[in-house]
Amino acid sequence: MKKAAVLAATAGLLGTGLMTAAPANAQPWANLIVEACDTSHSGAGDLCLFYNSGYQGSNIGFWGGDVPNLGAYRFITSGNGQGQGVWHNGGSDANYNTIHGAWIIGAGGNNTWVAPNTSNNLGGNSKNLQEQVVWG
Fold first, then answer.
1. Which fold has domain 32-135?
2. Which residues belong to the signal peptide in this entry (predicted)?
């Protein structure tokens, strides 16, 4: 009986537009690419994290999927911070993707939205607190 009530309530929400299903053509990114920061990918470049503020030092780029644990990665290019873990070590970001924005999820709810084709110095509550990347 409870299952029927839940189904009826869900159908009611769908009918009012308060709850919608994903479009049939929506494809989640599933092929994460981790590389040195790349500005291309046919106009949909990487979300890049830099070890230092001002887009300086070693970097790493993510494209094609969410990154649930930045602790699994290290900064990969030459420069200050090369080989250091990405977890809680980012000083700036750049989103070279012209289509998708991304959330950099930080410790204690300190999250940073990086709109398409923008960049930020991570300061205040978000510098050195990065734990995940979730594309928006």
1. Gamma-B Crystallin; domain 1 (2.60.20)
2. 1-26
